[in-house]
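Structure tokens please, single chain.
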Amino acid sequence: MAKLFSRSFQKKILAWILPPIAFIFMKFLYATCKKKFYIEESTPLSPSIYALWHGEILMMPFAYMEYAKNHPLDAMISRHKDGEVLAKVIHLFGGGTIRGSTSKGASSALRGALHSFDNGHNIAITPDGPRGPRHTIADGLISLAILKKIPIITLNCKPSSYWTMKSWDAFCIPKPFCTLEFYIGKPIFVHDMLMEDAKTLIRDRLLVHAI
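Here you go.
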């Protein structure tokens, strides 16, 4: 009986229950809101990396579907247990996942990303995830773009009203019936830039419309 109430068992139950609840909540919330899309350029034909802040991810599946339509997307999700819920939500939206990050499982994440690109898929990365610091750019995002010579596209979601969680990423939950402003930047190539210059450029672009 004690095992039924163990911490590990509770986490397994939550990992099974939470994804469909989160999926339904996200669909409901998006349906109640007004939407505005600010798109700088049309969708690239070649695979791209989509960069977004960790705290703004809640409504981003809808931004991607509006912009890239049915182009396959694989999201890079950390191997941390919290990532299990997010990975399952991504699957419910029809996306794929690459498990790993620059801090844990970096080599398998790199192999997974290269495999995704070879299959013509786009990749989504939160460069300040999985544990921050908030609004920083990890080397992995830039390294992938340089290695494959593919563009980075910045994504932002700016609700007119929202709640902010007391988490490291100040996770944003838009309020029902607000206006969602989605900003999708033009493709940025960084393969001819120095690492720090590229990181600064992407960070500055993402901060323009950050919450």
